[in-house]
Every structure is written in structure tokens, then in C-alpha cells.
């Protein structure tokens, strides 16, 4: 496919093909491949076996995913001669807890897996973040394989090595950087997602366009229906997203600088998730990011950094695919703005008390803004809340 | 001081001086200093302040150490303008648990410390391993400072970045590699240790001689009394030990190869600790290592790899300083040999089911032995248990 890395090129951002795609995350000795294609779970055992002889694995998944995809994965592992155990956890964000982490760690140790063996995450972001954290701390680091089954996980959380759990102090405040050895993204399994879940993942796809790929964003505006309906656009959009993330991760594995751009929409989004007690009925992560991205563009316009038109265009596209884009789109009451700001300040992207946001000069022109005045954010949010 | 890195040199292994010593652990961007000297805790605040402006810290310690050393440390931090909170945990190996980890993490998050702030471990190996683990996972890695107050921690656990906790499956099976930013080893605080605890730490000092510094081992045989009584030999022995460990860590941070030599005596030792349920009344870590080192030398002799005389010399010296050196020196009954082997096989140094031991060709000539036959180890242990 055609690369679409620099913003203003006139050639098409994306060309279509139906073959399996491979995106490499270049991290020296820790480089790994992301395999993207239809029906890959059936052959996952073979792909995993290729990583090393005699490997054993512990598959971690949740109840929802287990019903749909665990049997074919386990069958493929058995066919490939890989000894495997599995652990099925409750579905949902509450599973990203210390308690579940202890359960996974205990399961892996009880199976006597060694450093060269692997933890396999079969599921969405919750299972991936939790299992990756466990793989990162058992024996101070075991092999780790991601088999993401949600769009969000395929384009975002399964790539880049961030792992973690939530605590009462906030989301993802505890974790490690632990890169996977392989990511297997089966685009066919996304057909089993609810519309709402698919849309939530799409917010992260759009994000890559908004950060630094304006052509990709324009392509998404024209082609999003094919992505949602499972046309060839789906694998292409996932590959472009993975490549976008892989580039940023390769340049800045530990989030010392540029990687922070991936947090576009996330500072507001995380605060909204915290403010709704991570209640997935009210708001899921990608929805928080969608609202957060609109807020980031509108706040940038409020600060005279970007045009109102770009903010409106972002809002329009995300609303068109069915994502929430306004604070008022969240069911139920939100806490006072002071409490929202408090959640923002606890967000781990804080540096020495100053508020750091990802702001933008327009679509595809995001940048890291340090020392954003809290009072301005407060005023801006108050405005957004009045009817 | 004179380096004593290669085995058979004829110059003295160690020369004495009373000044503060600095040993650097060379790890590129993550390099750090170990400060060694008398009364350093009083000035620790100043040394920590030198790491960066506006840093805040959470001091983690235990009840025993808090009574003796927390006040001067906190006073020094306050004098240096460093905002600090502290958490005092129960003393003892049981504190290396998931529950205590959660407590430390919660304490650090509740204080709203950021990535550039630091967790300070004031205590022995338990507090250091636990606090370092917490520092490694809060916000996916915060600054970490070790103020080790036991001999064991000063010469071993505070250097090298290994952190972790125990689980029902074994010791240190869960943790991360997380290097400290500074280690402050106050040799004066060791006067507050019990004889038993000091001796246990001494086992790790002797280990550096046994691995690859035969001159240092000979110097210890002649000078150990000065180390125990607090003479200038003490700081010298600690500096040689830290330098020995720093070299190995710099060459092999993640224990892919040579670093495994530091486990001399530890495979047997950990199995004995597990077999005695980590009951510090019966066996503390350094005592397990002492017995383990004697067993490693005797097993090497049993396998015709080393002379009986060297094994006897090791046993004689460790017994002379008052360390246990025989299985029979452990109070109470040990489980059957099969169970001991089981503990050995769960030890994390296992590779693909084969038993890996650190064996030796003689004093100062340790090496990594893969594929040690379990049946030989079983026979050897059975012999050692018969009266």
C-alpha cells in the first residue's frame, strides 16, 4: 500500500488490497510484527509456534470473547504443538484491577511458565493491558503475544507496549512498558462487535488522521462506511493506524516526547471516564476520546491556535459515524468542573503540576502544549456545559 | 583503592582508606552512583536534592528502621527543601507481598507524586525490593532512591535494579527491572544490626570473592573481624562488593548471561528459604545463601569439577564468621528431597525445564552450568541429609 506519512501529499492517502498485511514495529532487538488480515485467529497457533521451539502459553481472555474465539485459538495452538492453559475473566473495565492482576500472575506461575514462554492476550484493551502487565512482571518479564479482538485494541492498545491497570486514583496509573513479541489482528472478528464498540474503536483510527495525517482523515470522511461494513477499507485503515502508531512508538518508546501526541483527546477523555466512574453504560474509552478530541480542537480554537472550521469538521465527522462529541451526549449528570479539572491534574501526563495538553493548529497538526493554564481550561469547560 | 578484578594477581586485593567512596554503575543514560561512607543518612537530603529541582519524595520504610533512622532522614530532606511523605510498614519478609505493594502504590498515588518525583527506600532488602517494584510500576516508572540499612542491601539488593515480591509459588517470582537513580549506603547504620543479620549480609560479600575474586576472598579470610567490628575494612569490603556487582550488572543488566553468576548459592538457598516457609526465625536469606554456596562448591566437587579442598575452605570461613553451612544447621525438620527439588525447579533461573546452577571450578572460578541432571542433585542432597 502507499505510505501516507506526511500530511499534504496529493497522491491518495490509501490504496486498497485484500492480502494479509504486516506492519513492523522497529525497536531494535525488541522489534515485532503486527499481522493484519481476515481469519488470522485460526492460524494463530502456527504464527506463535514460529517464535520458538517448545514454547508454552497461557491464554488470558474474558467471558464474552471466550465464547466467540477461545476454541478456535486453542485448537490452532494444539495443532501447532503448543501446550496451552487458559484463564477466563469477567468482561469489562473493572477487570483492569490489582485483584485481576494477581489472578493472572497466579495462573501463569501455577502453570510454571518460564521466561521464554508466553502470555497470550485474547481480547480487547482491558485484557491486553492487564495480560501485558502480568507478562511484564512475572519473572521480571516473559514473552507476550497480543490477539486483539476489538478495533480499539487492534489500532491502539495492542501496539506500543503500554500496559496497566486502573486504581481508585485514576486510569492506567499503574503499569509497565512491556513490548509484545507478536500482534495478530484478525479483522474478521470485528464483525462480532456491537456497533457502539466498533465506533468507539473508530475514534482512535480518526485520531491518527487528526495528529499528523490530514489526507488519511479526509479519506476516512469519504470511506468510513466501508470500514464499518467490513469492506477492504477496514484492513487498510487498521494497517495505516498501526503504522502511524508504530512510527511514533519507534521514535519514542517511553513517552519522553513525541509519543505524547498519541494522547490527543485523552486528557479530557480520561477525566470524563473518571467522572463517570468508568461506567461503560455511560461512556466507553473511545467515546471519551471522541469527545476529548472535539474538546481539544475546540479548546485550541478557543485559544486562537486553530480555526473554528477545523473543530467543526472534526465534530461533524465523529458525529456522523455515531460517536458522542459533546459533554451533553453523556447520559446522566457530570460532576462540577472543579472535579473534572481535578481528574485532569491527576492524569499521568501532568509534569510538575503544570497542565500538559495535546492541542492542534488544525487537522493533522497536533502538538504538545506545556503549561496550559488551568483557569482557561476551567472557563472553557464551564462554557461547554451551559445549555 | 586497588582493583581486584582478575583472579590470580599478586598485589593486595584491597587497600584501606577512610574517605567517602563513590561507585558508579555504568548503564548509559541510566547510570547512577552508589555513595558509601559513615553518617551519610544525615546528608541524604542534600544528595537527593542534587538530582533535580522541586522533586518530591515518598519514603518507604519498616517499623524497625523507622525507629532508628527515619527522623534524621526526614529532617535532612526538609532542610534540603524536599517535600516528603512517609509510609511505615511491618518489618519482615512477609511485607514483600502483593498487599504491601498495593499499599505503597496507593500511598505514592495519594501523594500525587509524578514521574520525576521519587520513591525512597529506607531499609533492608525487603523494603528496597518492594519500594523499587512500586517505583517501577507507578506511572510506568518513577525515580527511585535506595538508602539501604542492612549489609545485605548495601552490597547486593540495592544495586542492580532487580525489584520484586514473593508469592505462594516462590520468592521474587514477580517484579521488574527498575534501576535506582542514587544509592546512599551509610556504613554507620550497620552498627544497629543484630549479629545474625550482619553475618547474613556478609555471605553476599564473601560471594563476590567466590565468583571471580579469589584475592578478595583471601583478604576476607584474613580481615573479616575488621568488617564486623566497624573498622575501615567495612567500607572497603562494601565498595569492592558494590563494584563487583556493578560490573556484572553493567555487562548484563537483564540477566541474559553473566549476571546469573550473582546467583551463586542462590538456587539452593532459595529452595531452602521456600522449604522453611520464609520463616526468618529458622533461616534468613543470607544464611540460605551461605549454605547454598557451600552446597554449590560441594556439588561441584561431587561432579569432579572442583577440588574438595576449596569446598572445605569455603565451609570453614563461613562457619568461622558464624554462618550456618550445613542443612543440619537449620532448626527444625526439612521437607523431603523431592520437595526441595520441586522448589529448585520453580526457581526462576530454570530454562525450559533443564536445571541451571552456578557451579565452580574452585574459589573465584564460578561458571553457569546448564542442564545439570536433576537426579544427580537429588542423590547429592540425599547424601548431605544422612547423618
Give an overview in words.
- Two copies of one chain form a homodimer.
- By secondary structure, chain A is α/β, with parallel strands linked by helices.
- The first copy, chain A, folds into two domains: 21-192, Rossmann fold; 211-385, Dehydroquinate synthase-like - alpha domain (Dehydroquinate synthase-like, alpha domain), CATH 1.20.1090.10.
- Chain A has 13 helices and eleven strands.
- In chain A, strands 1-2-9-6-5-3-4 form a seven-stranded mixed sheet, with helices on both faces.
- In chain A, a hairpin with a 2-residue loop joins strand 7 and strand 8 (170-174).
- In chain A, helix 5 runs parallel beside helix 6 and helix 9 packs across helix 12 (337-346).
- Chain A is globular.
- Chain A starts with 20 loop residues before the first strand and ends with a helix.
- The model of chain A is unreliable at 1-12 (pLDDT under 50).
- At the A-B interface, helix 3, helix 4 and strand 8 of A face helix 3, helix 4 and strand 8 of B.
- Chains A, B: Zn(2+) binds at residues 204, 266, 285.
- Chains A, B: Residues 87-199 form the 3-dehydroquinate synthase N-terminal domain.
- Chains A, B: It is found in: Cytoplasm.
- In CATH terms, what is the fold-level topology of the largest domain in chain A? Dehydroquinate synthase-like, alpha domain
Radius of gyration of chain A (CA) equals: 20 Å
CATH superfamily of the largest domain in chain A: Dehydroquinate synthase-like - alpha domain
Instruction: Determine the oligomeric state from the structure.
Output: homodimer
Main sheet characteristics of chain A: 7 strands, mixed
In whole angstroms, the N-to-C terminal distance of chain A is 46 Å
Mean pLDDT of chain A, nearest integer?
91
- How many domains of chain A? The number is 2
In the CATH classification, which architecture of the largest domain in chain A applies?
Up-down Bundle
Which two chains form the greatest contact, residue counts included? A-B, 38 and 38 residues
Count of distinct strands of chain A: 11
SSE string of chain A:
EEHEHEHEHEHEEEHHHHHHHEEH
How much of the polypeptide of chain A forms β-strand, as a percent range?
15-25%
Q: How helical, in percent, are the residues of chain A?
A: 40-55%
Structural class of chain A: alpha/beta
Overall form of chain A: globular
Strand order of the largest sheet of chain A: 1-2-9-6-5-3-4
- The unreliable regions of chain A are 1-12
| Total of DSSP H or I helical runs spanning 4+ residues of chain A | 13
Per CATH, the class of the largest domain in chain A reads Mainly Alpha
InterPro entries (chains A, B): Dehydroquinate_synthase (IPR050071), DHQ_synth_AroB (IPR016037), DHQ_synth_fam (IPR030963), DHQS/DOIS_N (IPR030960), DHQS_C (IPR056179)
Binding site for NAD(+) (chains A, B): 125-129, 149-150, 162, 171
Pathway (chains A, B): Metabolic intermediate biosynthesis; chorismate biosynthesis; chorismate from D-erythrose 4-phosphate and phosphoenolpyruvate: step 2/7
Enzyme class (chains A, B): lyase
